[in-house]
């Protein structure tokens, strides 16, 4: 049931955009399960959320709404040490929602409120690290995920196996005070010394995380019903999605791939590598590379014809004290735009409004995030994405500029509160359009017990 990572990461902790899931965040739960009696180990979570959004679109029309709601749920402990159950109900209700300004997806179409039992599942623990999930539940992978960037997240009707295997320790850890972060011995003045033999360090193990499953239906983030995965993608047939993925992790290095196959609809393959570059104890940039391949399958029922599209991405995070500098580049190619029918788009230049994933479109992003040292939990970031012209006629180059301010204290009576202000502007270079603007205010208060 646990659906809310609390507190949300600060602007200098992570450059992953809201609603996105990277591969190294897949195949895992947000917390470790404990072994106590099932009823005593039951956990409850209530997430109060209110969200205001105002978007002025390229065509001059406006979408605006203020909604209130959130979710409440529970997850039992393991009965007989092997089976647990989870339930979560979601709701979003209008506070201010002019019917003429529909389209924010904070509410159901027509600016209507909704309430739905979005999670009802069994968690079967085969052994430690090996679980089967059956029923309706939220999942997080690059192309099937909660996409939790409105009032309530996506959830799915599925059967999924997830596992984790330790491959054995080999890389030095950094727990010994006599060695630096790379396992080198330190001289008495704190400098690296080749003349001193370091004590045997504690090894860092390597892990394999993996998952395989079948996803039959999805409840979209502003819906109160579950529909076929293929219908949600846009096809007039009912098909599910087969998913299989593998992730190798060792310290700060990870590499993996995941594939999504829907018969007659689409196949999406995603691969990603992340690594830390330990130039020194104080300078450790993080490099990430991603590859995406999408193509039609079988009878080509999604678009009525075969299609193929790809995107490659590169991202560099450079942390400096309380500041995180990020640069990213993506390039989409093939004969179709990239798609994300069941998730937020995981591309490195996908930001608040645009995904920068149209066929032939390249994009370059610069981002600066800062965690304010004088106010615990206060952070901000600003970014700019510069795109190129896509291949399709009638589409034009776009640039996006976003700023974000977030307050998420982790101590005392305000623990569980997060307030976020977001503003984005998209300039289009061509066509008879005006600048798109997008303003959001999001407030969450999470109670767990």
Outline the structure in words.
The structure is a single chain. With 449 residues, this protein is an all-beta fold. The protein has one domain (23-448): Porin, CATH 2.40.160.10. 1% of the residues lie in helices and 50% in strands. The chain is built from 1 helix and 19 strands. It has an 18-stranded antiparallel barrel. A hairpin with a 7-residue loop joins strand 2 and strand 3 (83-96). The longest helix has 5 residues, at 229-233. The two termini are 13 Å apart.
Topology:
Elements (H helix, E strand, L loop, with lengths): L42 E14 L5 E14 L7 E14 L17 E14 L2 E8 L17 E18 L30 E17 L7 E2 H5 L7 E10 L2 E10 L3 E11 L9 E10 L12 E13 L2 E12 L27 E10 L6 E10 L9 E11 L9 E13 L6 E13 L1
Antiparallel strand pairs: 1-2, 1-19, 2-3, 3-4, 4-5, 5-6, 6-7, 7-8, 7-9, 9-10, 10-11, 11-12, 12-13, 13-14, 14-15, 15-16, 16-17, 17-18, 18-19
Number of strands: 19
Counting H and I runs of at least 4 residues, what is the number of helices?
1
At the fold tier of CATH, the topology name is Porin
Give the overall shape. Answer: globular
**Which CATH top level class fits?**
Mainly Beta
CATH-level-4 superfamily name: Porin
Helix fraction, binned, reads under 10%
Distance between the termini: 13 Å
Mean pLDDT: 90
CATH architecture: Beta Barrel
Fraction in beta strands: over 45%
């Amino acid at each position: 049931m646990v659906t809310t990572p609390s507190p949300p990461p600060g602007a200098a902790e992570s450059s992953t955009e809201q609603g996105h899931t990277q591969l190294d965040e897949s195949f895992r739960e947000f917390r470790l399960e404990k072994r106590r009696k099932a009823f005593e180990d039951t956990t409850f979570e209530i997430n109060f959320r209110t969200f205001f959004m105002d978007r002025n679109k390229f065509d001059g029309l406006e979408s605006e709404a203020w909604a209130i709601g959130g979710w409440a749920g529970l997850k039992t402990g393991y009965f007989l040490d092997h089976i647990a159950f989870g339930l979560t109900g979601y709701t979003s209700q209008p506070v201010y929602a002019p019917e003429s300004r529909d389209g924010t997806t904070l509410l159901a179409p027509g600016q209507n409120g909704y309430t739905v039992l979005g999670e009802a599942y069994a968690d079967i623990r085969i052994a430690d690290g090996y679980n089967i999930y059956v029923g309706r539940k939220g999942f997080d992978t690059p192309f099937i995920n909660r996409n939790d960037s409105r009032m309530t997240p996506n959830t799915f009707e599925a059967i999924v196996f997830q596992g984790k295997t330790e491959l054995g320790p080999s890389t030095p850890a950094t727990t010994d005070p006599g060695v630096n972060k790379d396992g080198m011995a330190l001289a008495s003045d704190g400098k690296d010394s080749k003349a001193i033999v370091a004590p045997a360090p504690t090894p860092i193990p390597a892990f394999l995380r993996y998952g395989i499953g079948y996803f039959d239906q999805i409840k979209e983030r502003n819906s109160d019903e579950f529909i076929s995965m293929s219908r949600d993608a846009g096809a007039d047939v009912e098909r599910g999605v087969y998913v299989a993925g593998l992730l190798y992790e060792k310290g700060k290095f990870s590499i993996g791939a995941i594939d999504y196959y829907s018969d007659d609809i689409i196949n999406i393959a995603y691969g990603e590598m992340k690594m830390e570059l330990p130039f020194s104890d104080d300078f450790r940039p993080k490099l990430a590379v991603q590859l995406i391949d999408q193509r039609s399958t079988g009878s080509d029922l999604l678009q009525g014809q075969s299609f193929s599209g790809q995107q490659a991405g590169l991202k560099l995070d450079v942390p400096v004290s309380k500041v995180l500098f990020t640069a990213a580049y993506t390039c989409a190619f093939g004969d179709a735009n990239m798609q994300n029918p069941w998730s937020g788009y995981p591309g490195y230049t996908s930001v608040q409004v645009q995904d920068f994933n149209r066929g032939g479109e390249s994009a370059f992003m610069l981002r600066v995030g800062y965690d304010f040292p004088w106010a615990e939990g206060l952070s901000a970031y600003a970014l700019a994405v510069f795109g190129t012209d896509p291949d399709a006629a009638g589409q034009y180059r776009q640039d996006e500029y976003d700023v974000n301010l977030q307050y998420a204290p982790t101590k005392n009576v305000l623990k569980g509160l997060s307030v976020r202000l977001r503003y984005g502007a998209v300039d289009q270079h061509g066509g008879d359009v005006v600048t798109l603007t997008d303003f959001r205010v999001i407030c969450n208060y999470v109670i767990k017990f």
